[in-house]
Write a structure and sequence with these properties.
mainly alpha, 0% strand, MetI-like fold, 285 residues
Amino acid sequence: MRRPGRLALGRTLRRTVSYLMLIMFAVLILIPVVWFLVTSLKTNLEYMSYPIRLLPAKPQWDNYVKVFTTGGFSFARYAQHSLYLAVVFTLLNTTTSSLAGFAFARFRVPGSSQLFTLVIAMLIIPGIVTTIPQFVVFSRLHLTNSYWPWILWGLTASPFQIFMFRQFFLSFPKELEDAAEVDGCTPFRLFWQIFIPNAQPVFATSLIFNFNWVWGDYFLPLIYLSDAKTTLAVKLATAYVDPRGNALYTITIAASVIYTLPLILIFFLGQKYILKGVVTSGIKG
């Protein structure tokens, strides 16, 4: 039989090792972030110099001012494009995914299990595989260079989020649904008045995931939208150059720092909802 002192020492040692590993992982994750921030304060010559200078000789805070005054384009205008696409897609996709998840969780009809299996199977198909077929379809429908693809993608729901909502809604007691039906509650009213108010974590998780995906997407706006309608992510890639055509890397990095701020803010505000939503979405099969 182990002594209490030895048990306490073992727990302390395990806790210490766990904390050290977490600190190591945190440092590895933060190194690129710190480099990103430090580089945004360098001059272009310091950025291109060799050997690499870790710190700027003098922080160039005006790089963040030049983000809005250099490049010959309206930063706010392209930010509005990104915001519009992100908000529209997020609201539509969260709505359709939650309705589909509710249907799979609470309705028992012939073939529903097979259909849900098909939805889950779609998760193994990489999105890049369907990019060319989708582009051909939208091109023939004359929907390229418009925001209609994002609207239609939002209306088709997301397999992962259908699964997430279904798993969360399965955790609701059947007695609650039966009592609502006795009171004459329709399925839509049940969803609207009972399920939605009690499913804030999973809805918040869905909203955050969807917004982050569209706001940070570079590839799809690049191939679907013209320069006048494209998003900020695409515009920043080529916007900042000097009169000789040389890229102003540090100003581009400073612009990227500003561009990522909404994502960082949303994550820190919603991280508890993400954790709770993901955990509670897997409590019942």
